[in-house]
Amino acid sequence: MPESLLEVQDLGIRFGGLHAVRDVTTHIPAGQITAIIGPNGAGKSTFFNLISGFYQPTSGSIRFDGEDITRLKTHEVVSRGIARTFQTTTIYKELSVLEGVMIGHRVRTRAGLFDALLYTARERRDQAASHAGAMRALERVGLAAQAHLPAGALTQEGQKRVGIAMALASDPKLLLLDEPAAGMNPEETVNLMALIRELVRGGLTVALVEHKMSLVMGLADGIVVLHHGQKIAQGTPQEVSRDPAVIEAYLGGHAHGGQMGNTGKVPAAAEGASHA
């Protein structure tokens, strides 16, 4: 069994009297793709916000690569090796692709405002390191040739890849993808799946929140199912698709329920993508 890179124990957060995430205990194995699924409002993005330090939990603990990161701030979590993308493509469309991705690398540099104002030797070294780091990230997502184009001139798929490159530029061990296929057509979705597989083959661990069941079932090694902020199932795609609690809470009533869960069959990625 693969070693767990991230472990959460009894994790929870309340907003007023509402438990957005409650008593979630789970793990993300190293070197695999883990999907977090559930109906709208299940707590999936909130779960990502807790892991990445955007929210502070009101209960429970988070351990990453053997270290307790429960109370770390976002930039500290990033520096430990966790990066994330967001539901909406958060890129700087007026900047070049390269300039935008360089911003993602700055968390790994040490120069401050004083260095930038005086253009010190440290600032010059950091700029060179950010340039090299950004180009490595663009190579990984297949956009090195578009590095000097305005980011806003790229296709939807290209802009999604820029967002992933910005996260990769911080040199993470764990990449959190929040609805990476949102707004993409079937062909783009299949291309994205191939990219994610390639990143994992290169040594990355990926966790993703996604509503496109064809992508989830064709890509994930393991699935965690949230419902009303609580974990109701975890296992392989085959195990989860046959779980009665999952079928009742999510798959059976979901638009994709007939293609999985109820039949116990796992659709091929390309075949199911057009229905996602």
Automatic annotation (TrEMBL):
GO molecular function: ATP binding; ATP hydrolysis activity; L-isoleucine transmembrane transporter activity; L-phenylalanine transmembrane transporter activity; L-valine transmembrane transporter activity
Database matches in InterPro entries: AAA+_ATPase, ABC_AA/LPS_Transport, ABC_transporter-like_ATP-bd, BCA_ABC_TP_C, P-loop_NTPase
Superkingdom in the source lineage: Bacteria
Biological processes per GO annotation: D-alanine transmembrane transport; L-alanine transport; L-isoleucine import across plasma membrane; L-valine import across plasma membrane
Listed GO CC annotations: plasma membrane
PROSITE patterns in UniProt: ABC_TRANSPORTER_2 (PS50893)
Residue stretches making up the ABC transporter domain: 6-253
Keyword hit for Lipid metabolism: no
Key words, A-Z: ATP-binding, Nucleotide-binding, Transport
SUPFAM superfamilies: P-loop containing nucleoside triphosphate hydrolases (SSF52540)
Residues spanning the membrane: none
PANTHER family to which the protein is assigned, alphabetical: AMINO ACID ABC TRANSPORTER ATP-BINDING PROTEIN (PTHR45772:SF7), CONSERVED COMPONENT OF ABC TRANSPORTER FOR NATURAL AMINO ACIDS-RELATED (PTHR45772)
Name of the protein in question: Putative Branched-chain amino acid ABC transporter, ATP-binding component
